[in-house]
Amino acid sequence: MNRPPNENHETSETFTLWEFVSISDFERPIVLSTDAARQKWRLFKRLFTRADESSTPIKPEDALQTLSEARLDQLAPPIDRHAAVDALDRALEDWLQTRPNGSPVKFIIGQAFSANEEALARWTARHNARLITKPTVEQILENDSTWPNVPTDSQSLWVLPNLDKCFLRHAEGLSLIRRFLALALNGDLGPGIIGCADWSWTYLRRVCSLSNGNALTLQAFDGKRLSALFSQLASSTQPTGLQFLNANTGKTVLSDSREENLEVSKDLNKLAMRCRGNAEIARLFWRDSLRNEPEEATLEDSTPTTTVWVGPFTEGAVIPGSHDENVALILHALLIHNGLPAKVLTRVLPFSDYQIMDLLFNLKSLGVVHLQYDNWHVAPMGYLSSRHYLSAQNFLLDDF
Amino acid sequence: MDNNNIANIFIKPDLGTLQHVVLVILGTVFVIQAMQKLFPWIADYLHGASRLFILAMIPLLRLILILAAFILIVPRIIEPSMQNMLALLGSIGIVLGFALKDYASGLIAGIVAVGERPYRNGDWIEINGIYGEVKHIGMRAVQIVTPDDTAAYIPHTKIWNEPILNANNGTPALQCVANFYLHPDHDASRVKQLLHDVALTSPYLNFDEPIAVVVQDQPWGTHYRIRAYPIEPYQQFRFVSDLTIRAKAGLTNLGIIFALVPAFPKNKEIH
User: Fold this and answer.
1) Which one of A164, A198, A213 terminates a domain?
2) How far apart are CA B135 and CA B151, in angstroms?
3) ω before A148 within 30° of 0 (cis)?
4) Does A4 reside within a domain?
5) CATH, residue A342
6) Residue A345: pLDDT above 90?
7) Size of interface A-B (CB pairs under 8 A)
8) pLDDT at A126 over 60
């Protein structure tokens, strides 16, 4: 394994922060039934009591202010995916050495916003493997026989980081991926790694009869992992002297003291459960909840211990109503294809382009979707409500 | 039984009894009305089996409430002895048997319909060629709303001697069929695969249920049927439209010719 030594960002924790596991071993943080009942009771009581009758918060919302983007980038910067690449190396080590004929392909299933494609691209560069580029929409629809342009009976390692971009939910959009998967699973292309987004994987499993047997995914981030991750993120830009306190109770949510972090705060456990173990979504909700006192704004870098207050976690983007079937169809199409350009959406949805654009702009104004390089995606802060919306309408959901 | 005997059955009414009876009747009517508004409102926020369950509870609970009200009222207005009960029920039976025979039959069929459940609220049924979604199961008739948004009131007595076709039978799984009539000269296996893929790629498809493409040769060509299930029963028409539109586009792309039946004038118009 030719891993550069300076890329090892894994901390020497007693547990592994980044870990790829088989899908059957994926453990989503769950809500204990007693906690759930207590929470429902609290919500029920809130219907009959005024907000100011509940316990007085240590730091009321109006006594705190939101942080600047620059400060948030210090406290909760984007996640460095090098450690995930290291974890992928560890997970694939045995398979790479033995390369069993029975399983010539490994699937790496990326949860939403897990930067799976980016991690696989880095892994490919690290191992000098052949990177297969995704086909164009025209190639998909025409079942272009020149794609994937990999010599058959080759024994060199190849990587396709985005299987989710190799099909369209269209009557003519499945032939290409079926042909490719038949070649790959038969071992005709040699050993290979295939990355796929989780929603696409759920769909393709039913369409192409794929099994979870050779699929790996990142283990869910429970409270403990989130605690370690957020500490790592904060300490990567600000060495010491940070404590994160709950603005309501004053209790420590996170600190740079290792002893205090041994016991994971309830807030982080709740955040992990709510975000379904998704690190990136949890980071964004975490970022969104951070506050400080106005006078601290000028002192924030000068005091030995800086207190950052953690306000209540927001609901994220909310989709009003629960019945708009067209909204559900458009969200489902975006999730299944891991984002699509508007002109391609017309091929996979049963309504016209102007209706699609109306819906997209409406959802964009709510913060549920966003446009990124011509591709419409479900936004991270709109993901949980989108998933809930689709679940309520019995749509096919991802496994995570 | 002479008039005096019948009069003896009844307890001498007083204001308290009257108030009690009126209160029970009003209370029952109020609770039934509230339930008939509230349950569909709750069901509108639900999907699938839970929606159908909530809707199916309405007629059963209404029957229980009416029986409870009857049990509460009867001892207040008659002496609750076996003799009196037989006399009263006998008199009611004679009245219903002669004067209101059909209405009584409808009421009894309504009770049987609640018990046997040949249809429940939210089911898609066909009776006497009328197809629609069951919106309300009344005491005497079932109200269904057709795809043309026309309400049809069908008496429960139909269950005695008419077949009741229930497309989803209390579950969210409702099979839809999209028909295609093609010229016989084509590659049938290719068409079958295309039609299967058309179903697999429909945004309305329920993946928990199977897809089947049935092929049948006819004198005029080949008849194809896609049998598949939408996510929710109310999506059935949009689902079939989606299958039809996309399958026609796919078949046209394959160069398949659709079967055409020549239109002949009627015999009397032939000269």
Assistant:
1) A213
2) 9
3) yes
4) no
5) 1.10.10.10
6) yes
7) 52
8) yes
Q: What pLDDT, on a 0 to 100 scale, did the predictor assign at position A98?
A: 85
Q: Do B231 and A206 touch (CB under 8 A)?
A: no
More confident: B112 or B88: B112
Fold of the B124-166 domain: SH3 type barrels. (2.30.30)
Domain limit, last residue, from A160, A189, A213: A213
Using alpha carbons only, what angle is made at residue B233 by residues B227 and B235, rounded to the nearest 5 degrees?
85
Domain ranges of chain B: 3-116, 124-166, 176-253
A330 lies within 8 A of chain B by CB: no
Window from A20-29, A78-87, B68-77 with minimum mean pLDDT: B68-77
- CATH code, A173: 3.40.50
pLDDT greater than 80 at residue B166: yes
Q: Which domain holds residue A350?
A: 325-392
B73 or B187, greater pLDDT: B187
Would you tell me which residues 264-283 of chain A have a C-beta closer than 8 angstroms to some C-beta of chain B?
A: none
Per-residue confidence at B97, pLDDT binned at 50, 70, 90? confident
Report the complex ipTM.
0.84
Edge-first strand order for the sheet with B212-218 is: B176-182, B221-228, B212-218
Q: pLDDT digits over B217-238, tens only?
A: 998 899 999 999 999 999 999 9
> Any chain A CB within 8 A of the CB of B52?
no
Phi then psi dihedrals of residue A316, to 5 deg: 80, -165
Let me know: does A221 contact A285? Beta carbons within 8 Å.
no
Q: Is residue A91 part of a domain?
A: no
A118 lies in some domain: yes
The CATH number of the structural domain formed by B176-253 is 3.30.70.100
**Neighbouring-strand partners of residue B223:** B181, B216
Residue A51 forms part of a structural domain:
no
Query: Who wins on pLDDT, B123 or A320?
Result: B123
Number of structural domains found in chain A: 2
Cβ distance of B47 and A348 shorter than 8 Å = no
* Burial class of residue B11 (count of CB atoms within 10 Å of its CB; 0-12, 13-18, 19+): middle
Cβ pair A291, A309 in contact under 8 A: yes
The confidence score (pLDDT) of residue B157 equals 92
pLDDT of residue A296: 54
Q: Tell me how far apart the alpha carbons of residues B144 and B134 are, in angstroms, rounded to a whole number.
A: 4
